[in-house]
Amino acid sequence: MLGALLLPLLAAGFTEARDSWERANERAGRALSGLSLEQKVGIVTGVGWTKGPCVGNTSPVPSIGYPSLCLQDGPLGIRFAKGVTAFPAGIQAGSTWDINLIRERGKAMGEEARGLGIHVLLAPVAGPLGKIARGGRNWEGFAADPYLSGIAMKETIDGIQSVGVQACAKHWIGNEQELRRETISSDIKDRELHELYMWPFVDAIKADVASVMCSYNKVNGTWACDSDDVNNRLLKNELGYRGYVLSDWNAQHSTVQSANGGLDMTMPGTDFNQPPGSIYWGPNLTAAVRAGEVPEARVNDMVRRILAQWYALDQDRGYPATTINSWNLTAGGPDVQGNHKNIARTVARDGIVLLKNDNNALPLKKPSSLAIIGEDAIVNPAGPNACPDRGCNTGTLAMGWGSGTADFPYLVDPVSAISRRAAADGTTLATSTTNDQAAGASAAAAASTAMVFINADSGEGYITVEGNAGDRINLDPWHSGNELVAAIAAVGKPTIVVIHSVGPIILESILAQQNVVAIVWAGLPGQESGNALVDVLYGDVNPSGKLPYTIAKSESDYPTIVDAPNDPFTEGLYIDYRRFDALNIAPRYEFGFGMSYTTFGFKGLDISSRSARGGNGYGNRNSSGIAAGPATGRRGPGGRQDLFDIVATVTATVTNTGRVQGAEVAQLYISLPSSAPETPPRQLRGFVKLNLRPGQSRKATFELRRRDLSFWDVALQEWVVPRGNFGVQVGASSRDARLTGTITV
Ligand code: NOJ
């Protein structure tokens, strides 16, 4: 009997997690049957802003052992806590293109959340996706590409949930800028909604993410958290999502419409600013049920979804008590850092992108003297946490600002890390750690090489920093960074520019300086900033990061902030490299670009339309061959399950052809056949990071799933594999194709 039940499940590729969800769902159903309406409403309604130890808290139900659920930010570590790790930001993790590292980072964040008794970690971020380069919160997510973002979502969720913490995929959906974020309508057409903005959420749901946070903005005219269309139709029905939808903080705008529209939990339960606060659920939801406006079955469904995730992640068994105290940090729980500084350093280091390196200026080889210039080389003299939620840009930049921040336990700045190395090497340092040009120039004059530190910051819109209300006001470096670099370069020494940035900046002025010989894109490295940088500057570790977005020559090459009630998303499918490729715009540094101290060769492209044995876990392994036409599989987490079938395998051999060890990210881009509707010329559909000794070769294996070869057919309302010849490009960046081939369907 049992065997007969299990067999079809196994054949259909069910995972253990799915089995445990089935059991958890049954347990949730049983627990639910004993609850009063008021208890159920308490499970779905936050207790109010600052009314509990976490940024979000719900009412406990002791009769079933259910606690006050603790929901806490955020995507780079635990917000409002001492004794936690300030990890590199999401964009730095994306910049590593290293799935193992991304998963380890997620796991370490999960361990810290668990250690403090946090049930739901409000991470990771797939929206904003980053269509607007100036968008204030792009750095919280992983990449301006849905494929890379989706893989990073899955790995981070797997990491967080592997230690029994519920993850939260946010922000669903279309929250691409801070300006007007609580009123703007993101008017996103069906195809780009599916092919760009929903894509990484599909990976999150396929990974069984416990919760999804609906966003502040409207989508096609309706607030996301009140929208039947985005929550019921798209998320729960089309994508087969079985977790719960929780609101961003005060992103709910109705009692009945939100409940019937698919929202399952409201946060924080009251308005931030109007005590006792407007409250849409709580007693108002109870009343709406009694009045017959919201079926009690809908409330049962909310509770069942929430309890099922709590059971599925074993949080009913010995989960640590909540000890975090967001409003009194010194009264908070234990130090939970463990050895996570190692993973923080590794991600920071492997996310560094070397953009320019003339005549092997780097790595440094025991220089006799070196000038370190710029305020970005030192920690804020008032301390790394001097500004609440990192809402200032003073000293070295290691994360953006807003709710997606954590307190630094310490911040290793570039100047102290370089000083230690210089002392060991016998290098004389000349330092000028302000942005004063004259002082910087005299430091440069006193050394054989000059290193200039500049940055660009952004964050969440509730804080304005130096005129930047979340979104950036331009794509220039802050604090006259271009002028500082020009003044230093004019001294005449070989000049190395190190940049900490939330996203693209326009580098044309810097590149126009003849003496700028190297540019190190150090991103948003978190607490281990200086150590990670020294690893790369001195060649202890070869740089291996690749840009997770395009750096343009001109700001006008990107879609920009919309200051209007509606954002019509006129750029359609053409964001980031898709836009540059389609419009024939030459980027300065393209998506996927990054240099190394060694060189790599690519050879032996092999394409087979049969699935390989083994696999990376992104697809089902029970299929072979490619059938043109629409997906037809049953629906499950992530949507139609045949979309995850591996339909083709591409391999190539990558060789380290240089003299030092290094890692290359082999990238696969697909072009759809001409029978498909107009589509970006190439789209990332695979990547593999390979660490290679000099002379060593390894095979890169890319498994293409049905979804990777499909477009969203708006007439059919289905993913479709078009007939014809698909272009396959394997190489070192989006514009550095080394091998090309064809898949014929
Ligand atoms: C608003 C932010 O948009 C969201 O990301 C965060 O989790 C909540 N505030 C709670 O702080």
From TrEMBL:
Its EC number is 3.2.1.21. It catalyses: Hydrolysis of terminal, non-reducing beta-D-glucosyl residues with release of beta-D-glucose. GO terms for biological process: cellulose catabolic process. It is found in: Secreted. Keywords: Carbohydrate metabolism, Cellulose degradation, Glycoprotein, Glycosidase, Hydrolase, Polysaccharide degradation, Secreted, Signal. It comes from the Eukaryota. Residues 1-17 form the signal peptide. Residues 616-634 have a biased composition (Low complexity). GO terms for cellular component: extracellular region. Transmembrane segments: none annotated. PANTHER family: BETA-GLUCOSIDASE, BETA-GLUCOSIDASE L-RELATED. This is beta-glucosidase.
